[in-house]
């Protein structure tokens, strides 16, 4: 019998042992009657069967391993699985607490990188809407950065980098959402301030082309043509194939203007950085 098949048979035997008592009763026998490994494997089984309610049940077994067999190797394994199960159950605050407890107790363990990654995910997976408070986004960025910097050679560093970029883009999207609202309301200066944040602080995100196009729109509405032309020039230099550039170009042409660097505004400084290759 192969190792995988043997494990499956063992799991079903263990499930039967834990699920029934002598005399056919459905009441589970005391967990003290089982070894740490047996209780741990029952927790794993509860996670693997796929029932949406299983993570909470699995947590009970993992926590019992810690309670009954503290300081054992199985207790350490159970703690990292608690973090995973809590995250799977969307108990994000509990997952962060357990992950930090693992890191405090086993800082040099081979699973420390995984614990740190799950801690970061517990913030990241709560970033579900642009309109929500951005505190979680900042915390996700900080935690993901720590994974990247502290465990650069781990299996989780690359995933953390990708999620960091998405979370960073999320912050820029929030600025754009507010800026578009101000622009629609005719509050052009307030809108410009939001789009400026995107251009100066989030220039590597996917929001930058639209931010530049909106700057063209807002500055033209205020009759500040130098800045509008310069924003169009930056857009053309970096995103000429973007539909946002096409729209900005049409807006400028409609007023007899062209995309070119003019004046000495904050946008002119960025334009010079672009030409020197120091931006983006």
From TrEMBL:
GO terms for biological process: Gram-negative-bacterium-type cell outer membrane assembly; protein insertion into membrane. It holds the Pfam family YfiO. It is a lipid-anchor. SUPFAM superfamilies: TPR-like. GO terms for cellular component: cell outer membrane. It is found in: Cell outer membrane. Residues 1-19 form the signal peptide. InterPro entries: BamD, BamD-like, TPR-like_helical_dom_sf. Keywords: Cell outer membrane, Lipoprotein, Membrane, Palmitate, Signal. Residues 35-231 form the Outer membrane lipoprotein BamD-like domain. It comes from the Bacteria. The keyword Disulfide bond does not apply. Gene3D superfamilies: Tetratricopeptide repeat domain. Part of the outer membrane protein assembly complex, which is involved in assembly and insertion of beta-barrel proteins into the outer membrane. Belongs to the BamD family. Part of the Bam complex. This is Outer membrane protein assembly factor BamD. It comes from Paenirhodobacter hankyongi. The gene is bamD.
């Amino acid at each position: 019998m192969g190792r995988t098949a043997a494990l499956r048979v063992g799991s079903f035997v263990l499930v039967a042992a834990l699920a029934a008592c002598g005399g056919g009763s459905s009441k589970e026998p005391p967990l003290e009657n089982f070894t740490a490994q047996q209780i741990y494997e029952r927790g794993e089984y509860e996670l693997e069967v796929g029932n949406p309610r299983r993570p909470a049940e699995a947590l009970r077994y993992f926590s019992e391993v810690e309670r009954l067999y503290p300081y054992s190797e199985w207790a350490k394994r159970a703690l990292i699985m608690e973090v995973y199960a809590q995250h799977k159950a969307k108990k994000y605050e509990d997952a962060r607490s357990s992950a930090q407890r693992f890191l405090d107790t086993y800082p040099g363990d081979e699973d420390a990188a995984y614990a740190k990654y799950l801690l970061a995910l517990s913030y990241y997976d709560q970033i579900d809407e642009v309109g929500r408070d951005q505190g979680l986004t900042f915390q996700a960025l900080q935690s993901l950065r720590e994974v990247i910097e502290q465990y650069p050679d781990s299996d989780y560093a690359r995933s953390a980098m990708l999620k960091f970029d998405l979370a960073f883009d999320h912050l820029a999207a929030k600025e754009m959402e507010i800026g578009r609202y101000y622009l629609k309301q005719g509050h052009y200066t307030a809108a410009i301030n939001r789009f400026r944040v995107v251009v100066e602080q989030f220039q590597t995100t996917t929001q930058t082309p639209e931010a530049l196009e909106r700057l063209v729109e807002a500055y033209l509405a205020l009759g500040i043509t130098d800045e509008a032309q310069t924003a169009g020039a930056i857009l053309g230099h970096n995103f000429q194939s973007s539909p946002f550039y096409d729209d900005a170009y049409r807006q400028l042409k409609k007023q007899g203007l062209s995309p070119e660097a003019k004046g000495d505004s904050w946008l002119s400084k960025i334009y010079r950085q672009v030409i020197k290759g120091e931006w983006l």
